[in-house]
Amino acid sequence: MVDGTSPAERGAEPAKPGQLRASHEDRDRVVEILRVAAGDGRLTAEELDERLEAALTARTYADLAVLTTDLPAAGAAAAVAPVEPKDVVRIDCGSGHARRDGRWVVPSRMEVRVTSGSVRLDFTQAVITQPTLRIDAEVASGHLRLVTKPGIVVDADDVAVRSGEVKIRQPWGHDVPVTLRIELVGQVRSGSVTARPPRRTFWQWLLRRPKPYQAALE
């Protein structure tokens, strides 16, 4: 009997990596591996059809992984399964610039210290395996920038500001389901902390293209 409550509401344990839901991109990656394997003669036409159907209807990473375990390309398929997130990631930027972008794995907690220069954390393509991220930030000078997307909520109520500013911009409203809650704590003695979606490039603005986060809401 289904009670209609979510795992979080029932107090269930966090899902293991293999139990996490697969995305369209994850399915497409496995489909390509299967097609290459068939082209190399490693799968018959019947086996290819059977596995393609299974890949396109797979719900979890584990469902996808089992389709390539007997193929030489299984190493590439292993990229489908998310890397175990680290408990703590520390970034100490004394000068210059530090950044995390692309498909980086979001840890449970981050300690970010900026004494000069800037740190940029881009979450638009990040691999999110947990519902919350705590960022302990100490900005003595310089900038800490968070690039977000719909579904990411940044709570900066516990940041002490002695000089500088903390600016959080979340223009997609409160009706978007939350996929990641970032709890930002610490202090800003000089410089700034900002959180906002990515800006349009000059050409996107010139051609009146929609803002990057708007496409995700359609």
Care to describe what's here?
The chain is of the alpha/beta class and 218 residues long. The strands form two sheets. The chain has a five-stranded parallel β-sheet with strand order 1-3-5-9-7, with no helix packed on it. It has two domains: 17-80, no CATH class; 88-196, no CATH class. It has helices at residues 24-39, 45-56, 61-65, 74-77, 202-206, 212-217; strands at residues 88-93, 97-100, 109-114, 118-122, 132-139, 143-147, 152-161, 165-168, 180-188, 192-196. It is elongated and about 65 Å long.
Overall pLDDT: 81
Query: Major β-sheet, in short?
Result: 5 strands, parallel
The topology string of helices and strands comes to HHHHEEEEEEEEEEHH
Shape label: elongated
Q: Please state how the strands of the largest beta sheet are arranged side by side.
A: 1-3-5-9-7
Oligomer: single chain
Beta strand %: 25-35%
Distance between the termini: 33 Å
**Counted beta strands:** 10
Helix content: 10-25%
Runs in which pLDDT lies below 50 for 5 or more consecutive residues are 75-79
Radius of gyration, taken over Cα atoms and rounded to an integer in Å: 21 Å
